[in-house]
Amino acid sequence: MIDINNITNVKKNKASGVFDNTYQVTLSNSEIITVPKNEDNIDYQEILKWVADGNTIQEDD
Amino acid sequence: MSTIEVNKITPVSGGTAIQVGESGDTITVPSGATITNSGTANNFTNYRPNAKPFFINGSMAVAQRGTSFSQPDTNNDAYPVDRFSFQTGSIGVYTSTQEALTSGDAFNAGFKMAARIDCTTAQASPAAGDYFWFQYKSEAQDCLAWKKGTTSATVMTLSFWVKSNKTGTAQVNLRDDDNDRMVCALYTISSGDTWEKKVVTFPMETSYPMNNDNGTGFRFEWPLGGGSTYSSGTAPTAWEARIDADVAANNLAINDSTSNDWAITGIQAEVGTYTSATIPPFQHESFGDNLLRCQRYLEFSSDYGATYTSGVNSCVIMDMTSGSHPLYFPISYNTYKRAAPTMTFYNGNDGATGTWRTNAATDVSISGTSISSQGFTTNSSDLGGDGRSSNGTWKAESEL
Question: Which is more confidently placed, B48 or B259?
């Protein structure tokens, strides 16, 4: 589980060139996790708070 | 029908048994009547409307994440056993563990594991917003047996074994997250460093029904410390809108000395009012059944107890086609998840996250796609050549 204060970066994941409704989240301890865009997922809820705080989700590079 | 009116029926002189009717007879207890266990009667079948124990892993037997965690002086959660967490918020440094029991009354009651926390750096004067509690969250759809918010709302009895070097009275909270309400009960640790069984009851209100969904329903908290934000109020013994100041009004202040520890096991909840004499026995599950229920919230592809963060090869994907392309491979979980889980992929060589190791000793990025409650599909970068494979471990987590 992640905490809004531990999020370093959030990036959209793509499958076959299309956003696949998952996010790659890098945490302050360098751990990388995949969070689905699902409102029942408590980590996605933290991402929404993180965005509401003025942060931006990156497009996949 | 004739009626016999008496206050007591006893065996004939010298006898010890009474028989009612004959084989094949039907003995009817009228609708609305109650058969009561006076307190210590034997062979009394207890009515349990819930087929499985309400608490998942109440015996503390399952610990998929590991068995020992350092909790630094920041805001963090640790799950030394599945489903139960110690939450420490800048209130000292702790080590939380799954403790193996070898003696004591809890051990003699059939419990071989406990969740335990030891204070290693004290914070005797916590700041206002510091917090410290042991917690369990249940799904709202699993709380229906207590009929909260109906005219038939039923008391909940909570029982648990607890041990601490500190004696005194503390509260345990029952929270309704759907309506942000709470009530508490008090328990007293009478003897230090001694396992004691506590049985407390929570009233159940006939208003504020809970949702029938996979979000948090009943939340249980055992406050162990806290700053004034959480401890300056009064422990509520009747339901109220949650007040921060009431959450830890009665706590044991485990944070005030490095001599302190607190441990718990054998947590059970029952529908109805029971005492320490009448509470039904703990429902021990097989390890396999317990693990499967825990996996609704957390599952690893690696073996139970494997050190996945150090590099474990539990899953392999292979590129059998030519050209450079990503690799998609569908995988199902052991059991249906509470919600689409967060996926973490650990490198099979060193445990790093976000990559798997190929058989050419290179690391390739990997994530999950099409993540659902039933399964997911790997989304791996090209492995660098036809016939190559990559390996590692995945974790799926959908805690509340």
Answer: B259
Task: Give the up-direction half-sphere exposure of residue B114: CA atoms within 13 A in the CB hemisphere.
Answer: 27
Task: Give the CA count within 13 Å in the CB-facing half-sphere of B388.
Answer: 23
Q: H or E element: which one contains B296? A: none
Give the contacts of B83 (CB within 8 A, at least 6 positions apart): B55, B56, B57, B136, B294, B297
Indicate if the pLDDT at residue B45 is higher than 90. Answer: no
Q: Judge: B399–A13 Cβ closer than 8 Å, yes or no.
A: no
Instruction: Say whether B118 sits in a helix, a strand or coil.
Output: strand
| Chain A environment of B342 (Cβ under 8 Å) | 1-2, 33-36, 41, 43
Q: What is the largest CA-CA distance in chain A?
A: 32
Q: Which residues of A touch B341 (CB under 8 A)?
A: 36, 41
Q: Say if the Cβ atoms of B399 and A22 lie within 8 Å.
A: no
Classify the complex by whether its ipTM is higher than 0.95, answering yes or no: yes
Q: Per the CB < 8 Å rule, is A32 touching B353?
A: yes
Q: Which two tokens stand for residue A45?
A: 């809820």
Q: Considering CB atoms only, which of B76, B328, B367 is closest to A24?
A: B367
Q: What is the pLDDT of residues A8-57, one digit of tens each?
A: 999 999 998 899 999 999 999 999 999 999 999 999 999 999 999 999 99
- Does B197 contact A at CB distance below 8 Å? no
Dump pLDDT digits (tens) for B18-39.
Answer: 888 898 898 888 877 777 767 6
- B213 vs B177: CA distance, rounded Å: 12
**Of B268-277, B313-322, B334-343, the least confident:** B313-322
pLDDT digits (tens, 9 = 90+) for B59-77: 999 999 999 999 999 988 9
Nearest by CB: B340 against A3, A24, A38: A38
